Amino acid sequence: MVQRLCIIGVGLIGGSLARALKTAGAVGEVIGHGRDTAQLQLALELGVIDRAETDLAAALRGADVVVVAVPVGAMEGVFRAMAPHLGDDTIVTDVGSTKGSVVAAAERAFGAVPPRFVPGHPIAGTERSGVAASFAELYHKRRVILTPLPHTDAAAVATVRGLWQTAGAEVVEMEVQHHDEVLAATSHLPHVLAYTLVDTLARMEEHTEIFRFAAGGFRDFTRIASSDPRMWHDICLANRDAILKVLDRYSADLAAVRSAVEHGDGARLLHTFGRAKKARDEFKQ
Amino acid sequence: MVQRLCIIGVGLIGGSLARALKTAGAVGEVIGHGRDTAQLQLALELGVIDRAETDLAAALRGADVVVVAVPVGAMEGVFRAMAPHLGDDTIVTDVGSTKGSVVAAAERAFGAVPPRFVPGHPIAGTERSGVAASFAELYHKRRVILTPLPHTDAAAVATVRGLWQTAGAEVVEMEVQHHDEVLAATSHLPHVLAYTLVDTLARMEEHTEIFRFAAGGFRDFTRIASSDPRMWHDICLANRDAILKVLDRYSADLAAVRSAVEHGDGARLLHTFGRAKKARDEFKQ
Hints:
The structure is a homodimer of 285-residue chains. With 285 residues, the first copy, chain A, is α/β, with parallel strands linked by helices. The first copy, chain A, folds into 2 domains: 2-174, NAD(P)-binding Rossmann-like Domain (Rossmann fold), CATH 3.40.50; 178-284, Orthogonal Bundle (6-phosphogluconate dehydrogenase C-terminal fold). In chain A, 53% of the residues lie in helices and 14% in strands. The first copy, chain A, is built from 12 helices and 9 strands. In chain A, helix 4 (75-82) packs parallel to helix 5 (100-110) and helix 7 (176-202) packs across helix 11. The relative contact order of chain A is 0.11. The mean pLDDT of chain A is 95. Chains A and B meet through helix 7, helix 8, helix 9, helix 10 and helix 11 of A and helix 7, helix 8, helix 9, helix 10 and helix 11 of B.
C-alpha cells in the first residue's frame, strides 16, 4: 500500500495507472501534477486523482512514490524541476518508451541517477492519448519492463514492481540498452514505417481515391499512424542509434525484396513471405 | 436470378460469394470446380456449393455465369482450359487482385478478351484462406471494382454488378491500369512492407525476445503478414511495375525520415508524422 502517490503528467498512461491502483485499493491519496490545467481538472472530475497540484514542490511533498508520465522529450526538464524538492526516501519511476535517454536525462538533472529512481516502461497504450482515454484495465496482462541500474535500490525496485503487478501487469527486468534495441525493433520501427507509408500515400495525386479503396488490412497496418506525433518525434530522437540500426537492416531487406519483384524472382519472394508468415503465425499463439 | 453459377476455385473468396448469393436466393444451382478435391468436398458438405465437378467441361456446361476465383498466377492456365468449353452466352468474371495481368492472361488464353468477360476485384478478404473461412457477409459494405474494357458487353457488366450488389457490395468501375496503381499503393505495398518487417525481425538473434515484447500496435501492423504467401507472390509478380513505382516513392520517403532521425531533425519528423496522423484520422471517418 502506497500512502501518497504523485503522478506527473496525468494522460493515458499515468491516468490508467492511477485508476488501476485506486480500483485495487492499493493507494491512499493520488496527487496529479501537470502543465495542462484542463487535463488536470478533467482528471480530478473523472476521479482519476484526488488532488491536483500545479505547483511541483507541493505535488511532491510527502509523496512515497512519484510516477513521471510525461513524453520522453520532457523528462529532463521535469527531473531538473523535481531535484530540489525530492525527499531522500521518495521512490521515483518513469514510463518512457526509451530507457537510455531517460537514464541519461536523470544523470544530468540529478547529478547522478538516484538509487531510488527505477526506470520503467509499460508496454501498453492505444493510439489515443489524454486522461479521458485512460482506463483501469490498460495494463491487464501487459508487460512492464524495468531497467534498474547496478546501484538501484532493491526495495525501490520491489515497490515499483508491486505497483505494476497490482495494475495487472507482468513485470520483467532488462538492461537499459537491450530494452532500447528490442523496442526499436517491435515498436519504434513499425511506427516510423506506418507514418511514412501514410504520408507517402497522402502526398500522391490520387490520395482521395487511394484511401477510398483501402480495405481492412490497410486499416490495421496504418492504425499506429494515428498515434501522437509529438510523442513519436521524441522517441525517434531519444532512441536514435537503436532505431537507425534496425531501420538499416530493414531497408536492406526491403531492397532485396524490391530486387526480387523487379527480376521476377518468385522463389525468393515465396521464401521470404513464407518465412514471415510462419513467424507471424507463431507469434499469434 | 442466375440459374446456374459456376465457381472455379472454391476458397474464401469464391466460397463467400456463393454463400452470399445462396443466402439471398439469387442463384439456382451453384457448381464448384477446383483442383483440391478435399476443399471441394468440404464446400459441398458446408452447403457452399450444390454440386462438385472435378471435370472442367462438366462444370462449365450450361453455366450462365462463371466466377474464376483462383490465385492470380493460376488464371491463365484456367482460362486456357476453359476456352474450348465456354458457351458464347456465358458470362465470365474473375476476382483477381491485379487486373492488368488477368486481362493479359485472358487475351493470351482466349485469343482476344471475350466481350462477356468482366474483370473484377472484390476488395475484401481476411488473412485466412480456404472454404472453411468463407462466410456470406464477407462482401457486406465492401467495395468491388470492375474494370471492363471498351468492347466489354454492357449486359454482362450489369449482371456481374448485380451479383456483387446482391452480396452486399458497392460496385465501382475503373480503368485497368488505374486499378492496379491504386491497389499497389493501398494493398500490395503494405503487404510487402509487413512481410519484410516480420522477416527482418524473425532473422534477428533476439527474435524470441523481440516477439515476446511486441504489443498491440505491432500485432495490428503485422497482421497481414499472416496472409497466404503464394497469393502475394503471385500478386507481386503480376503487378510488378505499379508496385515498384510506389515502393520506390516510399523508399525515398523512408530515406528522408531516416536522415531526419540520424541528424536529429525534429521539425521534419514532427511535420511528417503530423501530416500522416491527419491523413490517417481523416481516413478513419
